[in-house]
Amino acid sequence: MTVDQQFTTLYEKLQNLLRQHNRLERENDKLREEIEEWKGKEAAALSKADELQQQISILKMAAGQMNDKDKKTFERKLNKYIKEIDKTIAYLSQ
Question: Can you tell which superkingdom this protein's organism belongs to (predicted)?
Answer without folding.
Answer: Bacteria
